[in-house]
Amino acid sequence: MKVTKIETHICHAYRTNWVFVRVLTDEGLHGVGEATLEYRELTIAQACQELERYLVGKDPHNIEAFWHDAYRDAYWRGGAVLMSALSAVEMALWDIKGKALGVPVYQLLGGKVRDVVPCYANGWFAPAKTPAEFAEKAKVAADAGFSGLKWDPFGSSYMNIGRRELSDALACVGAVKDAVGDRVELLIEGHGRFNVPTAVRVGQALEEFGILWFEEPLPPDNKEGLAEVKKRVRVPIAGGERLYGRWDYREFFRLECVDFIQPDVSHAGGIMELRKIAAMAECHHIPICPHNPSGPVANAATLQLAACTPNFYLLETMALDVPYRREVSTEKVRLKDGMMSIPDAPGLGIDLNLDAIAAHPYEPKNLRHYTGDLTDIRPDDATASFGNV
Question: Which helix (H) or strand (E) holds 149?
Fold first, then answer.
């Protein structure tokens, strides 16, 4: 079997554009991957295409050799673009291998340690603005069985936060806490928005709510600062979605930056790279809770990791999504009591519907995180991403 082509397909998904990859072979088998690099979708699509010269004419089963050679020859190593392109093509190669051998990818990585994985919800709050609106949305998400609710209550704050803005954010957290009680965990997202003293101030203010974690309180380029925040607050810290590969994570662990790590299968180097990072985390007794807010293929790949990774703890899921999510792929996963079942189909257990993807062409989008429009994350006709059973 030889690789003949790499294709990229971009699908508008309201807040961003999903970037899907197909790796084709001369035996009719193909694999799918996802490289959704928000706000740089055209760039990442081209980067995926440039990896074609490393694969055409090669055996798709030799995944480690491809990854090593492509990473080595990039010269300008690491970073979001190279690592996201590598991630998508690598997961497509695992999909091909699993299909060729007739087994799910997790069987190629040691087999199952679990059949289902607990899920927390992101995107559940759209389009809430006030504490009361967040509280009502939280009740709905809790009733759906999610084990946790994550959101960013900090409006347009960046680096610093005013007294009134902090009071508003804490009122939102309090309203959600009152609405759901102890039924679900609360996970507070920072989106890398604060400086060290502000992150400490916010983290200390969050202590009264018993949150599961305070996520990415600092920008990702200051690991030492994040370690300092972790030492000065009494809430657990999560982070790592914007780290690229095991070399970034080596320093992250050495500095003891976080209590939970959050590598993204679409950005950190792919399925095997996350397995290696998870093994490093296991040596430090740190759980892995992958960043997973993207499209259906990334979710499918992350589920394969959830199946076979002992220190996998929580799966991030988007509670609501564009109504055509179920049309663009064959995704069939379901939630029951907040647990997502891990599929047993060969490969990643998912394929793409190219006609449905083409019906929603690329639209440029800008980051909303620091504009006060963060809850405008889903369209008015958004539906549940995954059906309950």
Answer: strand 148-151
CATH number of the domain bearing residue 373: 3.20.20.120
Q: What angle (nearest 5°) sits at the alpha carbon of residue 376, between those of residues 370 and 379? A: 155
Q: Cβ–Cβ contacts within 10 Å for residue 89, how many?
A: 30
Catalytic residues: 191, 291
Supply the DSSP symbol for 104. B
Domain range for 119: 107-388
Tell me the average pLDDT across 186-192.
98
Cα angle for residues 135, 147, 273 (degrees, 5° grid)? 125
DSSP bridge partners of 383: 321
Mean pLDDT of the region 199-227: 97
d(CA 152, CA 169): 9
Residue with tokens 């009071």: 167
d(CA 297, CA 87): 12
Looking only at the bridges linking them, the beta strands covering 116-122 and 148-151 are parallel
CATH, residue 25: 3.30.390.10
Instruction: Compute the distance between CA of residue 162 and CA of residue 155 in angstroms, rounded to an integer.
Output: 11
Residue 85 shares a structural domain with residue 180: no
CA distance 242 to 262: 9
Under DSSP, is residue 227 helix (H, G, I), strand (E, B) or coil?
A: helix
Tell me how far apart the alpha carbons of residues 65 and 271 are, in angstroms, rounded to a whole number. Answer: 14
Question: What confidence score (pLDDT) does residue 79 get?
Answer: 93
DSSP 3-state of 4: strand
Q: Give the model confidence (pLDDT) of 343-363 as tens digits.
A: 999 999 999 999 999 999 999
- Rounded mean pLDDT of 269-278? 98
Question: Whole-model pTM?
Answer: 0.96
Q: Among residues 51, 76, 102, which one ends one of the domains?
A: 102
pLDDT in tens, 97-142: 999 999 999 999 999 999 999 999 999 999 999 999 999 999 999 9
Nearest-Å Rg of the Cα atoms of the chain is: 20
- Taking the C-alpha atoms of residue 303 and residue 360, their distance in angstroms, rounded to an integer, is 26
**Mean pLDDT of the chain, nearest integer:** 96
DSSP secondary structure string for all residues of 255-321? TT--SEE---TTTSS-HHHHHHHHHHHHHTT--B-----S-HHHHHHHHHHHHH-TTB--EEEESEE
pLDDT at 389 over 60: no
